[in-house]
Amino acid sequence: MYCLYMNQLNYQHLLYFWTVAREGTISKACESLYLTQPTISAQLRSLEKAAGSKLFHRVGRNLVLTETGQTVYRYAEEIFSLGRELQDTLDGRPSSHAKRIVVGIADVIPRMIVHRLLEPVLHLSDPVQLICHDDKPEKLLARLALH
Fold first, then answer.
1. Which has the closest alpha carbon to 91: 129, 55, 138, 139?
2. At 97, phi and psi to the nearest 5?
3. Together in a domain, 36 and 98
4. How many domains does the chain have?
5. In tens digits, what is the pLDDT along the chain, a chain of 147 residues?
6. What single-letter DSSP state applies at residue 31?
7. What is the rounded distance in angstroms from the CA atom of residue 94 to the CA atom of residue 100?
8. Distance (Å) of CA 118 to CA 84, 92, 115
9. Beta bridge partners of 76
10. Do 47 and 83 fall into the same domain?
11. 36 and 101 belong to one structural domain
């Protein structure tokens, strides 16, 4: 069992955790966040301490979410999705009133085919926020399993 209290939750720690979970390794997260490995490792330890549980376990060179990690990841995904939505609204882009369509696109599918498949969505009468995630099929399936 885990417990995150609002006064203990550091959103910077959550961002680092979320990035590591998405990237699969600390080294890839370091590249994405422009931070060093000791910095991210220390932040993950702090979040695990606040959660009262391990968030990852190692499988080879990759980090895999524990059950608690999966729960924290789902919340982090929603938190950062809402943050992006807020920023979009402030920037004058479609807000939460737009229907959200999230699409996973395997990196092996040619872009022209993807564009042709998704083009009808862009011409719907109601506003639509189209979110595309481009990645390897196995990573897309792993993310789908988390949601």
1. 129
2. -70, -20
3. no
4. 2
5. 445 444 567 899 999 999 999 999 999 999 999 999 999 999 999 999 988 999 999 988 889 999 999 999 989 988 888 888 888 878 877 555 667 788 989 989 888 898 899 988 888 887 787 888 888 898 888 888 876
6. H
7. 10
8. 21, 23, 5
9. none
10. yes
11. no
Asked whether 66 and 56 are in contact (CB, 8 A), the reply is yes
Tokens of 12: 């910077």
Burial 58-90 (b: 16+ CB within 10 A, else e): eeeeebebbebbebbbeebbeebeeeebeeeee
HEC sequence for 73-133:
HHHHHHHHHHHHHHHHHHCCCCCCCCEEEEEEEECCCCHHHHHHHHHHHHCCCCCEEEEEE
Q: In terms of C-beta density within 10 A (0-12 exposed, 13-18 middle, 19 or more buried), how is residue 47 classed?
A: buried
